[in-house]
Structures are given as structure tokens and as C-alpha cells.
Amino acid sequence: MEDMLFYDRLQFAFTITFHYIFPQLTMGLSLIIVYFKWKFLRNQIDKYNDAAKFLMKIFAINFTIGVVTGIPMEFQFGTNWAKFSELTGGIIGQTLAMEGLFSFFLESSFLVLFIFGEKLMSQKMHLFVAFLVFLGSWASGYLILATNAWMQHPVGYEILENGRYVLNNFGALFSNPWLLPAFLHNQFASLTTSAFVVASIGAFYILYGKYVDYGKMFLKTGVIFGLIASVILIFPTGDWNAKNVAKYQPAAFAAMEGIFETETAGSEIVLIGQPNMLEKKLDNKIAVPNVLSFLTYQDWNAEIAGMDKFKPDELPDNIPLLYYSYHIMAGLGTIFIGIMGLAAFFLYRKKLFTFKPLLWVIMFLVPFPYIANLLGWYVAELGRQPYLVYGLLRTADGISPTVSSGNTLFTLMGFMALYFLLGMLFLLLVGRVINHGPEDVQH
Amino acid sequence: MELFWYILIALFMAIFFVLDGYDFGVGIIHLFFAKEERDKVVVAKAAGLFWDSNEVWLVAAGGMLFMAFPVLYASAFSGFYLPLIMVLWLIIFRAIGLEFRNLLPYKMWHSLWDVSFGVSSLLLALFFGIALGNIARGVNLGNVVDGVATQESIYFFLPLWTNDFSPFHSSPGVIDWFTIIIGLISVLTLAIHGAAWIIHKTNASINEKLKTVITRLNIALVILTFFSLFVWQLIVPNSLDNFFSTPLLMVFPLIYFAALFGLFAHKKMKDVHRFYLTSLVIIGGITSTLASMFPVIMPSTNDVCESLTIYNASAANEGLSVAFVWGIIGVVLAIIYFIAQKRFRSGKIDDMDYGH
Ligand code: HDD
Ligand code: HEM
Ligand code: HEM
Any idea what the Cα angle at residue A179 is, between residues A177 and A185, rounded to 5°? Predict the structure, then answer.
């Protein structure tokens, strides 16, 4: 039983982590593509159109892998989390089915039209098609987050005698107070990833001395989008999310902030420190007094519940990972603003394109927004533990009763092998597109 | 309400098998008949352009199944755990074979993905047939051993196969000789369908040969169909009852057999019409099977646990009713998108720019 749960969780964590590498680029990039296409319509400079089509090539490869790794996600609700599906399918099935019917149809239908149809339609129409691809991918993010928001903070339900959940208020799924902050934060996080990718391609072209004009265009756009998005990530959206966690999941909040003991006269904010689970304290702590209370409740002396206030079986089960994930995400967010702010300053002074050290930094910055994004999700998902549906259904009660751990271990290894291959292919093919450069799209 | 969702999901599945079905079929034909490089490119292209927008019908059907019949979703997906995960792997292989084949100009690269596309299409067609066979035959709900259920009554877990591969005892495996036959029927049907699509969409040099292939495969299909019906009667003795009690349902098998026999005259037909006929074979086959089982969706092979039906496996009515509203909107939109794409789906595709 114990290891059934463990392997189911491990497989879910592995497959969703891999899946989410791709949609985050899709969602942000589709917006940047719309932007380039729109620029082209405004000023009729062909370079912008090439840029849009070039990015769409990367998008298409990325999208393919997003789709083929997304289908296993949907299947796994049934295969590995059958009890969860049986009990809550009537509710989370709503948003998941809507995603299939509304967003995936939209996105995949119009992606084909964008790629193959440019000659058959007017340029305005082509922009509109790009917009619909963008709309589809954001709608899909929205509906997935609505699903997740319900698991984090269940609303609009009723529980029958046999334990099954019944939807009694459809609107509540979308007015869920958890949803909007999470959605905005997540979308700007995707935009951050994509902007950093675009900026990095730009920096690469400039440093390499190939397609330099395009390089400057990409770099400039990437830096501007990247700066805006990473500021919004911290304030207002990150802050807003943190307040939600404090309000609705106080145990998760205590764990992610690393508060072992309740401080009645205002909580300090921990910048650095390592959770020591044996002695229930933080080692090597560097903290600023009372700031956390202020950030959370606008009151320097507000009390924040520490982990000592909760029963052990109400606390997340992997506190160190949760704590590190949160601190690394927030730390990276701060660093992003620093770097992008600096780049924007040099851009403004017209020195960015010749300032090599910064170009190198931007080029190699790419993995970090991905890391921050994935860790952000670890915060959300580990913080939700030990519940699958917060406060109602425990994770241990959600797994498939008939699937043995050996089966799951076998399929987990299969997924690992296959995804390794997918990852290699992805890098190879995207590398090739970048190497061929944006001029290649003309013929 | 249950009925509405049942029909809608069945419709989506049928559309999926018609649209993505020709991709599978093309893969099978590709594996066995496309020998020259030009044919290989063109044939792969016949499948490659739209597999993604075809596959969304499956994704959408899956989502709606989850929403409307969560109990079935939980029961079937966990019960068929291994075969389903393998289907997932095959779907991944097939997709990357199609998408990435033409991205690099090396011969070795092409043959690698050609084979990956062909083999995974073949196996997928087989697996989908086997799945249908399992649903027609039934499973050991509740994992009953000696008359006692060892699981909750909606759960089961099938071994991949049992020693004797027999469909007749109460705890059969996923693969037995009955489900294999249905698997073969599926392979043949989709191969014919794929061939019809290639002839319709391309000017490949193998088209004339494919016409003869269609006729031959169709003979085999007719034989297997009758044989499987006979066996099915033995396994599930009352499998025709629905047709006697509601004669209207007879239209589905009639469509199937009319299309199946109509295909023998296919050489004189227009290329599109041949494709329509093979589509009708698929639709007729799926709907007939479902009609004969109705309202059961997962038959039980023991008497301890009752079969899952669209009534005892569905979500509560409130949910189904709200979903009715957005469901209609969604379907209308899907149809609009489909029409918006239609221009690109028409005409031969040989010279169409593959884009990459
Ligand atoms: C580039 C990525 C990125 C960056 C730099 C940040 N975040 Fe974040 N964060 C995400 C990417 C992300 C995410 C992956 O998008 C999450 C996961 C769930 C969600 O809605 O967004 C998330 C969730 C998330 C949550 C919700 C956790 C839960 O649901 O339990 C909080 C409280 C924060 N973030 C707070 C912050 C703060 C205070 C940041 C900066 C100082 C910050 N995030 C930077
Ligand atoms: C909105 C969509 C999502 C839904 C509905 C969802 C749902 C689930 C479910 C059902 C589980 C298994 C039960 C559990 O251990 O809690 C799970 C676990 C997990 N998910 Fe998510 N998830 C979503 C998004 C994500 C994303 C995007 C990531 C990260 C990239 C993620 C990371 C994880 C991790 C790491 C676990 C394992 C947690 C553990 O080890 O306990 N999830 N999630
Ligand atoms: C457990 C949770 C998840 C499930 C069940 C899931 C399911 C899927 C499926 C089935 C697809 C393929 C759709 C197609 O055929 O076009 C897909 C793609 C996609 N998913 Fe996920 N997904 C999950 C998590 C997420 C998260 C957390 C996000 C973002 C917030 C996301 C955003 C997308 C997007 C934008 C696509 C389009 C393809 C792409 O961009 O790569 N998904 N997902």
C-alpha cells in the first residue's frame, strides 16, 4: 500500500514535470508571436513577419511534445488515480472536458492554419489566426488552473453518502478565489520563460555574429517582455498568491516559509536557512524580523501560525523540498528583475548590443525561468499534501486500488526512457531551427 | 442526460476513428507497400498534416468520458492499466515519427521514423481492436475469485493473457483469441480506410496496386466479421436481444454490412466515394457494437458484481445538465473550426508545402 502510493506519486510528479516544460513556452511564445505579427502589420517590415514565422517553427516542435506528454497526464487520472477520478470526476471532469472541447480544438486547428495557410489568406487574417492560437493556449491554461484551484480550495460541491462529489454550483468553479491569482501568476511566469528564451536566442545571434539584425530585435523584445513579466510575477501576483496560501492553507504556508514555531509578536521573513526536521528548527538562518507579518497582513505584529500549531498528519509530508522550492522560486524571481532591469537600462543607453558580459549572462539564463516555474508548481502541489482535495480527500485515498506498485514502477521506467528520448529530439530539432536562422523561413 | 452524453461521446469516438483512423491505416500501408522514396514522403504526408487536429477528438472524448462517466473512467483505465500505458507510448512514437521525419535530410533518419510510424500505427490499430473486443466480451468486475469479490464492485484488473487464451471463462485476460480477432478486424478495417485515403489524397505510384489490395483485404474482413459474430454469440448469448426488442437499431448493422459489401464495387467508384464507404464501415462497426450492448458499457463476466451501465457509472445529473449547455456550444465551435480547415483538407496533397 505504502509503496503503491509512493510510485503513483513519483510517476505523476515525473510526467507532469516533463509535460510542464513545454506548455509554459507555448503559452508565452504564442503571445510574443502575436506581437511580432502585429508589428509587421503596423510597419510592414518583413523582418517582423519572418520573426513570427521563425518562432512559430519552434512553437510547433514544442507544441507536439506538449501534446504527446499531455495525453498521458489526462490518462493518468484514470490509470493511477482511479479512486480520485471515481469520486471527484463529476467536478474536475467538467473543467478538464471543457479544456478538451474548447481550447485544444481551437489551438490545434488554427496552428495548422497558421503554418500552412499564410498564402491563402490576407495578412490581417493571418494575425487573427495567430491570435486564436494564443487564445487556445491561454484558455487551456485557464481551465487546467481552474481544475487545480478546485483541488487546492474546493468550492461548489456536495458529498454524497457513497463519498462521491457532486457539483452543485458550476459558477463557483470559476469564481473560486484561488483561481485568478494563480492563473495570472502562472501566465506571467510562462511569459517570463518565453521572453527569456527569445532574448537568449537574440543574444546568441549577436555573440555568434550571425543574423545580427534579427538578434537585436529578439534581444530587445525579450528584455522588455521579460522585465515587465518578472516584475508582475512578484508584485502583485506573487504577493497575492502568498496571501491566499496563508488564508486557505495555513499549514502549507508555515511549511513553505519555514516557520517552525509561532511568534505571537510578528513573524520574521526567512531569507536563508536549512530546515532541520529532527530538531524542528532552521539551521544557519538569516531572517528579517516582523517583515512576513507585514507582507501577509499589513501589520508588523500580526501572528502567523507556525508548524507547531498543526497535527503532524495535517502538515505537508516533504517540508524541506517545499521550503527550498519556495525560496528558490522567490530568489530567482528577484534575480530575474535584477538582470532584466540592468539589461533594460543598457538598452535605454543604447549599449546593450555591445556589452558582451551581459549578453553571455542572458544567453545562459534560459534554464532558470524553467526551474522557477517547475519549483513554483512544487510549492503548490507539495503544499497541498497530505490532501489531494484540500481538507477533504487524502492523497493516500485517491490511488487506483487494483494497480500494483510493480506495474507503476515498470511504467514509470518506461516513461523515463521515452521522455529522455523526447528531450534529446527536442533539443536536436530546436537547435537545428535556431542554427538555420530566421531567414530560412522565407522560401 | 446520460443518453445525450453517451451518444455524444460515441460520436466523438467514431469521428476520431474515421479521421485519425486513416492515419493509422496510412501507417500500416506505409509499412508494407510504400517502397520508393517519393511514395514514402507523400504517403507519410497524407497522414502527417492533420494527425494533431484529428487526435483532439480523442482528447475531447476522453475528457467528456471523465466528466460524464467518472466511474467507468476509473474502472476501465485502472483495470486496463498496462495496455493503456502502452497505447500512450505508441501514440508518442507515432506522433514523433510523423512530425519529425522530414525535419532532417538524412536517409537513415527517414527510415528510422518511417518504421516507427508504421509499426506503432499497426500496433495501435491492433490494440484499439483488442480494447473493443474486451468491452464486448466483458471483464471480471470486482476481481471475483470463487464467487467472492476481492475488490469494490466497480474495479478489476486483467492479466495480459491467461494460459489458454480462452475468452470463455469468467476471468479472461486482455488478450485472448476473441479479442485478437477483433484486433485483426480493426487492423484490416483501418488499413483499407488508410488505403482509400491515400488513393483519394495523393498521386502516389502505388495507388493502382492499392485498389487490388483493398479488395483482397475486404474479403478477409468479411470472413473475420462473420466468424467474430459467431463467437460473440457463444460468449454473450443475448448479444442480439437489443435488435429484436428495438428493430430501429438494425440500421447500424445495416450500414455496416451495406458499406462492407458495397466496397467490393469500389474500383468503379470515385475516389472520394470509396473513402466515404470505408468511413461508413468504421462508423457502422462501432455503433453496431455499442447498440447491441446498450445500456451496458462494461459487462461483467461474473454474477456477483453487476455490469456498469450508462446509469450506474455516470456523474450526478446536476453536473451533466450544466455540461449539456457548454457541450452544445463546444460542439458547434468544433464544427466551425473543422469547416475553417476544410479548404486545406481538400485536393491532392503531393505538392503541398510541408512547411518544415
Ligand atoms: C518564472 C517563474 C516564477 C517566478 C520567478 C515566481 N513564481 Fe511563484 N509560481 C510560479 C512561477 C514563478 C508558478 C509555476 O507559475 C506557480 C505554480 C502554481 C501557480 O499558479 O503558479 C507559482 C506559485 C506561487 C505561489 C502559490 C503556491 C501554492 O499554490 O501553494 C506563491 C505563494 C508564489 N508563487 C509566490 C511567488 C513569489 C512571492 C515570487 C517572487 C518573489 C514568485 N512566486 C516568483
Ligand atoms: C493544474 C494542473 C494540475 C493538476 C490537476 C495536478 C494534480 C496532481 C495530482 C492528482 C497529483 C498526485 C497526488 C499527489 O501526490 O498530490 C499531483 C502530484 C504532483 N504534482 Fe500536480 N497537478 C497539476 C499541475 C502540476 C504541475 C504543473 C506540476 C509541476 C510541474 C505539478 C507537480 C506535481 C508534483 C511534484 C506532484 C507530486 C507531489 C508529491 O510528491 O506528493 N503538478 N498533482
Ligand atoms: C495534470 C494536469 C494536466 C493535464 C491532465 C494536462 C493535459 C493535457 C493534454 C491532454 C494536452 C494535449 C492537448 C492536445 O491534444 O492539444 C495538453 C497540452 C497542453 N497543456 Fe497540459 N495538462 C496538465 C497540466 C498543464 C498545466 C499545469 C498547464 C498550464 C498551466 C498546461 C497547459 C497546456 C497547454 C497550453 C497545452 C497545449 C500544448 C502545449 O502547449 O504544449 N497543462 N495538456
Answer: 120
